[in-house]
Amino acid sequence: MSLKYGILGLLSYGPMTGYELNRAFHASLAFFWKATMSQVYRELKQMEQKGWVSATTIIQHNGKPNKKEYTLTQEGREAFVRWLSGPVVDSDLEVRSAFLMKIFFSAQNSPMINRENLHRFKEISRKQLSALQQETAIQEYGQKIQDKRSVTYWELTRQFGERYYQLCVEWAEMALATVEDQGQ
Amino acid sequence: MSLKYGILGLLSYGPMTGYELNRAFHASLAFFWKATMSQVYRELKQMEQKGWVSATTIIQHNGKPNKKEYTLTQEGREAFVRWLSGPVVDSDLEVRSAFLMKIFFSAQNSPMINRENLHRFKEISRKQLSALQQETAIQEYGQKIQDKRSVTYWELTRQFGERYYQLCVEWAEMALATVEDQGQ
DNA sequence: TTAATCATGTAACACGTTACATGATTGC
DNA sequence: GCAATCATGTAACGTGTTACATGATTAA
Lengths: 184, 184
Known about the structure:
The structure is a homodimer.
Chain A: H1 2-11, E1 16-17, H2 18-29, H3 37-50, E2 53-58, E3 67-72, H4 74-85, H5 98-104, H6 111-133, H7 137-145, H8 148-181
Antiparallel strand pairs in A: 1-3, 2-3
Chain A binds a DNA duplex through residues 1, 3, 17-19, 34-39, 41-43, 45, 60, 62-68.
């Protein structure tokens, strides 16, 4: 559901190709929404049929393959605004964690494997945290497009991510201590 | 991917019907994994074909519909243990948040709607937090089944949830202050 | 010479969501 | 009388994942 609106949102800054949309996704929305190339192309096809975006083929020379640039239509912009201004519902907050599923059943695992898994979780979280802290794309874009209001909101999502991974690291330390304490 | 293992994990505590599995899901795993009835029935059918679970029909009198009780087979238990003892991978930590997607683009929204959305997010998070704090299922089960080791791990997932929703509430307060500060 | 980048997709499968169907019993 | 609980599912659709296909250019 949200992938559609992620694409519309990115196109609201200006026209882009599927390939560029994919890069933009990875550079900015990846912390809270992952998308693959084939998904992006499929959504673009569907949205073109709906009339939310329109495509223009750009012929390239120098041996590079032709591009299809997508532009937001009036209906597309309206659909985006309807979603954006619509209310926040319970399901927008849903959490899904394969890792916690594993932890839930981990009493049936060997203590050694549990310690390893918790350590690995902590390390991955730490890496994600420092990646988000060193994130400069927001500042760069902000200086380029001179849109102070956008930067505020982009920065809020980044800060959520920072706090989240901070939590993961601290929880992992607590969990490791608990598991050791119990002599497991 | 994880729904399968959630079902196998619950069946590792003893045989259950699809209906009971659904209730168990809502009572224990719901914070980090949501499942619907039809999904549970579909997975059970697939896993029966794979030979991971076996079904026994229990004829009921007193007007109630017949039940099908599912039991973990040896192969099912092996598949579960393979998953449980397998390494934690990056994708096990993936975050997906429709709410943050909306915040990311919220510079294009009216300031009033943004304040409303942040307030609503804070309220939902607060409710989830107090629901998790008042959660007693873990203690009850623990006393019933006398499995101290399981309780430790169940409790770790609950604590992750508590910390997570605490973070949400605090972040929302910070975000509201930021948005007000900017005169938006 | 090998991998990465640019650029488009298709096909098949897996998983998640929503609506529908049946029908007795129990509590408000 | 109406909603909830017990208990099973099917069907259709929507979304996410993985593998495959093409083919030139550029940097290590």
